[in-house]
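Protein: Cellulose synthase operon protein C C-terminus
Species: Thermodesulfovibrio aggregans
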Amino acid sequence: MKALFCFLLIFLMVSDLYSQEGKQENILKIEKFGDESKVYQSPMETEKLPSKEESIKTERKVIIEKPKAEPIMKKIETRISESLALKKAWKLYEDGKFNEASERFKTLLNSSHRDIALSARLGFAYSLKNLNLHDEAFENFEYLYSKDYKQEEVVKNMVEILLIKQKFSEAEKYAVKLNEEDKSRFLKIIGNEKLKKSFREIEGSRDKRVLLEFLEKIENYLNECLSPEVFFEIAKALKPFEEKEKARDVLEKLLSCKAALELRAGILYELSSLIGVDEMLITVEKEEKAHEEQDYLKKLTSLKLDLYRKKLASLEITSLEIEKIAEQILKIDPEDSSTKALLAWHYYNTRQYEKALSIFSQLNKKEPENEDYLVGIAYCYNALGKDDDLIHLVESSSIYSEKLALVKADAYIRRADKNLSERDYSKAFSTVNKLAKADDPISKQKAGEWYCKQGFPVLASHVDSLNDKACYFKEQFPHLEFEGSYRFKSGDKGFSRLKEFSVPLSFYYPLREGQKLSFRIIQRYVSSGSAGENPYMGTFYNYLNGQAQKNSPVYSKWLIQPEIGYEKEGYPHIDLSISTTPLNGTVSAMPLFNLNLDYRDFWINLHQSSVQESILSIQGQKDPYSNDKWGRVIKTGVQSGLNLNIPAPYWFSIYGEFNYLWGKNVWENYSLEGNLSFGRTFSIDETREFDMGIFYVIQHFRRNTNFFTFGHGGYFSPQIFHMVGPTFRYKIKECCGLSLDIKVSAGYIYYRTDSSPHYPKISGSDSYFNASALNDIRGNYEGESKSKIGGSIDVRFRKNINKNLSFFTYGKGNVSGGYNEWNAGLGLIYYFMP
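Structure follows.
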């Protein structure tokens, strides 16, 4: 009975040992080498390996003492206890408790039972390996190899550790001992890791030659699809060196390899930067057909989306392909706002404004604060002429944008220009005044530019007062103007000829909102040239009556005239000046004034001004043969005109003038004048225009006083005057900084003058005069008729020199009356800017 009991115990012990080793099949461990992973379910069965003499001898010798003979029951109990301990150790290993497992395994390494000791060393080696104690793990695996224990499994682990330690030659030496399948797999892994290591040594090289030589050296591995990730990195490294063809060749060869899909996606993305979009799309479509893995297909879809977007970005905004490509993108991503926006801009730029407006409006509903969508809507309204909608959109938005402010300002300006074309000037200026009162600088700038274009630089400068880049900026500051001019008027030797040199000095003081005061002192030198001894002028009949010359006539004189002015730019444009005839003239000074009201298409002028045709008419004259003075002719009158566009670019202009002419001891006179002209304006560009038309002028004076005997005024005064012919005008106006204005007229002239008495104003009785004197007194100047070709020219130029200084010049000529006149001047303007 006792013997039977012992037998049962031995049986149970042996079966428990085998069940303990069998339990190892539940062990789960994952070992990773490079990009390859291997899952082991249990230690491998023992296989016959090459002889131990060929193996590497372990450095750590474990001495197993031969157990002393013990009683059989004691051996059985020890074996059962060690088997249970081994089982617990493997359980700890399976639970991932490698530290605890290694300690348990370590206590069993010197077991007297070979199978328990070797199984414990195997578990101990695995635990050390999982604790990254690779050197110690390798020693234990090497010991097991020397004991011919589970050779295939042990060698695999040794190779794996050698790979981790990058001892590739030793790893190859052990790998060849494996079966063909594992040997092939491990040799490929080793080759792969060796290649990676070699690449890492040159990876940071900035030398293109090094990369190309390395690629040439390992190119055969590419054909074998070995280490595709290395070749992938090489291709990326070649791109900065402009070796795009080489990089492309490598990437395309990699696509023929069965690389991991993650890497394959990377290859495609890199390739997409090296080849054309259309070619790449074909490649992606082939990939989609060749694979079914959903994550990979998602990546391909994402790449395709990027390619379509890249294609879209490369197209001209007006390209007909945009609509097609946008449709493809929106199929993949229907909520792609950027593509919708680009499509909308495409429609806008191809003048499909309604389509563009529809898309921009949809986008704006989703993102009402997006500036680009608001700008798109505003631009569409602008293109469709919906200025009211545009202005409401911008002014109701809480977003400030320069683009929105600009397009709103343009809408206001367009409104104003439309009002101008309809001759509703009050509404035009009211519209721009609203714009001028806006808070944003762009609106003020646009209003300022419009005012300047209308000829109101002071108003422009006050509205756009902070824009120091504007050419009209300086007009808000006081400025001093100095001018010098020369005038020559033809005539007979003596008093009808005139030479004049004038030096006006003017000071302008801007007030606000286009108002300006001016103060002027005009110094002028006038000269007629000498008429010789006993000239035929004044009361020459006294000389004929035997009276000696009493006074010397004035042949030349320096004169001085003051003037004060006020101007208000805008609508209406008011210009008022008050001055006098020369303060130190021969005849006492008289007040002069000029009031001009300009309502754009209608203007009226009230004036009292000096006739500037001779010394007699300018400042008066002393009678050489008496103590009388006469002359200093003034004309007091009204002038009014109408300028119409009928319609633009054609224009029509008409004006009329009436003047009452009077002076000291001068025969009173009046004149009527009318002018009618018609033409067309040709706009060359924004700053240049050319006018061409025809004109007709008619003029009438009641009396002919174009003489220098007593009672005459000394000015051209025909009974009837006609002139008809073409007129031309060329203008350049770059804001207020540069202007050129050339006016030329020519035509056929006919005029007739009346006969006029020698002495319209007689002093004294006929009984006092002798026959010669009486004949002179009763004599008449004969009238005349004349036909000729005449004309006039007027050229004015102004340019800014720097921020403080501008200069201007002008020249005028007139050969269309009973005399010829030429005038030229040059001036400087200094602005008192800070």
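Remarks: The longest strand covers residues 629-645.
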